[in-house]
Design a protein that fits this description.
elongated; 13% strand; 2 strands; two-stranded antiparallel ribbon; 110 residues
């Protein structure tokens, strides 16, 4: 579950910081861990050619894909303000999902 805190600056830009309800950890820190783990699992696949690393990266990124869609929905329809850095992270996660999906189909012949 995610909640957000927003403040208005003098230039009427909205600054929103997403946090998890279970702690005061900013969602951006979870994103850094997510992308780092995703990178390391794909690097493990490239280095060893073990399919388990590709499967791990794909499963992790599938969750990230759903979360990215949810965060984009929050930005556009609930908050009504776009965070440039969040947009880059969400679009990156979606692009990585489709690239991994293609690689997953090739390796597993699905």
């Amino acid at each position: 579950i995610v909640y957000f805190m927003c403040t208005l600056s003098l230039s009427l830009h909205v600054l929103c910081v997403f946090h998890t309800l279970s702690s005061d950890t900013p969602l951006a820190m979870l994103g850094v861990g997510y992308f780092l783990f995703l990178f390391l699992s794909f690097l493990g696949y490239i280095d060893s050619k073990k399919k388990i690393f590709l499967k791990l990266a794909f499963v992790l990124n599938s969750g990230g894909f759903v979360v990215s869609l949810g965060l984009l929905w929050l930005q556009f329809f609930v908050i009504g303000a776009i965070c440039f850095y969040c947009l880059i992270a969400d679009i990156s996660s979606i692009v990585i999902f489709f690239l991994l999906l293609n690689k997953y189909k090739i390796v597993y012949k699905v």
